[in-house]
Each structure stands twice: as C-alpha cells, then as structure tokens.
Amino acid sequence: MTMTAITAAVRSLGGVFPAEAFGRTYRLWPQVADFSELFTWDDLNEIIARHRLEPPRLRLFNDGAQVAQHAYTHPVVSKRHTVWHRIEPGSLHRHLDEGASLVLDAVDALHRGVERFAVALERHLRTDVQVNLYASWTAKEGFGLHFDDHDVVVVQAEGAKRWKIHQPTRVDPLRIDVEAPHPPRGEPVAEIVLRAGDMLYLPRGWWHSVAATEGRSLHLTCGLKPTTGADLLSWLADQLRASATVRANLPRLASPEQQAIHVAALREEFTAALHDGVIEEFLRARGTMDPGRPAPSLPFVSGVPADEHLHVRLTASGAWYDVDSDGRVILNAGGQQWTFAAPARPVAKRLTEGRTSTLGELAIASSLPVGQVATLVTELVTAGIAAVSRRR
C-alpha cells in the first residue's frame, strides 16, 4: 500500500468525523484510495504457506458456524514431538468454493504493509489496532447477524460486500459486560455495498450482517480497542493509592456517622482527581506505558553502529516528548523516561511523529555527529522501544 493511500485513509478519519460520527454512527467514504496494493491474494497465499496458523488465528465460517479444523488440515508431528496442522490446499479450496468465508486474525503482525496502516491508525486515533482479514467467494453470510465490542474501520481491497446495518440494542457494549444486547427487530437502518476502494466506519454495538455480492471479496477490518470511562476510573484508582485516605482500611466496624465521614473524604479525593484535564493526562500516561510493536534490531546486539544509512523508527506508538525549562528533551515511551540535551530535540520530534529516518538524516536535523545519534538510538533500542534496520 502506498503512503498516499495510507494518508488518504487517515485523512478521511479527520475533519468533522471525530465530532459528527466517531463513537456515534456509521460513516461510509466511497473511493478513498486503491486498497488493492495493501494486501493481495499472493500475500495471503504466501502467509498460509509459510506460517503455522492454528485456530483461531486462521479459521473458516459457513452459515454462522465454524468449519472443523480437520476438514481442511491434517496434523503433522515434528521431530520434537509437537503437533501442528498443515493446510490442505485442495480441501481449503473446496470449502471456500462451497460458501465458507476465510478469516485471518492479526494480519498486521504478518504483513509489513498492513502493519504500517495499523500504526498510522493507532497514532491518529490514539488506541491499539488489530487488523483481521476476511475473504469470501459466494453470497453466503459467514457469520450471520452480529455486533462487535469494538469500533471497526473496514477497507475493501477487492470485490464487493453487502453490509446490512442495524442500530445498537445496547449502547456501547463491553467485552465483559453486565448484560448482553438482544438482537434487533425490523429492517436494517442502512444497506451498503462496499466496493473496492471504499472505507466504512462502524461503532461498537451496531449490528451487521455481511455477504459478498459479486464473486470473490477481500477486505480488512481494523478493530479499534475501546477507551472507556471504566478504563479511566480503573487508572484513577491506581493513581489514588498515593492518598493515605484511599489506602486506609474501610471503617467497617464504625458507626454509620463515622462511615459517612469516611465516604465524604473519599468523595473529595475522587472529585479532585477528576479535574478538567484528566482525560488527556490518562491518554498520555496510557500511551507512555504502551509497549507498542517491539521488534529486534539484529545483528546489532551490542549497540547501533555509526552507520548513516541505517534506518531507525520508534516501535512504541504512544511515545511523546516535552522540553523542560532548561531546554532539555524529556522523552516518554514504553513505561520509561529519558532526558537528553537540547540538540536531541529534532531527533525526538521525528521519531515520536512516527517517521522512519536514517541515522544520517537525524544527524543533519540535529547537527549532532552520527556517532552521538547512534549512541542515543542505542539507548532506545536497548530499552525495546526502537528498532533499526538496513531497509525502510
């Protein structure tokens, strides 16, 4: 997928989208970009052939039921006595031709181009993203009418899919919830045909059924991890452990009057913690702790050499930096913090913006010798929040 297509997809999720649709209603963007370059049938063939994709990583569904694994694989016992299941192409083709849909979870961990797309969405929407692939060859519905407990951004790479969309019967359902939504009644509120190049956003809880309309179809669904009030309150509970009032034993043997006094003290602590800027504070803290997508930097196990042609990127997407009163650069990423001298600011800026740069480019931007940049990058690589490679 070209960077132009990634940019076009992310740009579509900007503008008025956050205020008008995000978390509220579905949104369709026709002909956003050519998504056929993002993931191809050849890519899928290679992944299936080269990886051991045990269910639920790869699975087939037909008419809402999962196809038994043994129907399209056979067990293989390795010389180390482990058992894995090898795909039988002929059986796989037969089930797909008979109406089964193929699902491949977390394809962003198997394909560099899809990973770039996921990372771009993570930086823009400030949440973790997992990309699943769906392929089908007939008009049969693989899953039937269902809802997701997370928002999705769908890009159609090839063919067309008909989406029948119903409004939620429970607003913002959670994966672990106190009640289950009941199925919708009546006709869908929208029936959309998603064609190659189109993009669709669907908030969590919106019911939908999906089927191919014109032969084979290939689409990617980007699942957005929800960030809820429950997450904020859980984080606040941990932050409030600094308070002696919160750490104190509950007065379970005290009089009702004494218990009321204690509750009032807790309420005061909690109300103070819910200040106006607490959401941004929480998002930054969560981003700082997010390990992102760690990657090794082999063969450089004892430090990054001063090679101006080496490429470097941050693997922790929630990283951010600040500048203190003395001009020093404070970088936060992966649950750690570094303080660098002021000239390192252009390095921190480029890396936290998600750019992949060469050591030479970082040296020019910061007016630092390549050796000093390599030393800085070595610290980040050693901490597991950056990676270097020969290619971009």
Radius of gyration: 25 Å
Count of beta strands: 19
What is the percent of helical residues?
A: 25-40%
Q: Determine the N-to-C terminus distance.
A: 14 Å
Structural class: alpha+beta
Please state the oligomeric state of the protein chains shown.
single chain
Mean pLDDT: 95
Are there runs of 5+ residues with pLDDT below 50, and where? none
Keywords, separated by commas or semicolons:
alpha+beta, 8-stranded antiparallel sheet, 31% helix, globular
Structure summarized in a few sentences:
The protein is 31% helix and 24% strand.
Topology, element by element:
Elements: H1 3-12, H2 17-20, E1 27-29, H3 41-50, E2 58-62, E3 65-66, E4 73-77, E5 83-87, H4 89-97, E6 101-104, H5 112-125, E7 129-136, E8 151-158, E9 160-166, E10 190-195, E11 199-202, E12 207-212, E13 217-224, H6 229-239, H7 244-247, H8 256-273, H9 278-289, E14 311-314, E15 320-323, E16 329-333, E17 336-340, H10 345-352, E18 357-358, H11 359-366, H12 370-382, E19 386-389
Antiparallel strand pairs: 1-11, 2-3, 2-6, 4-5, 6-7, 7-13, 8-11, 8-13, 9-10, 9-12, 14-18, 14-19, 15-16, 16-17
Helix pairs in contact: 10-11, 11-12
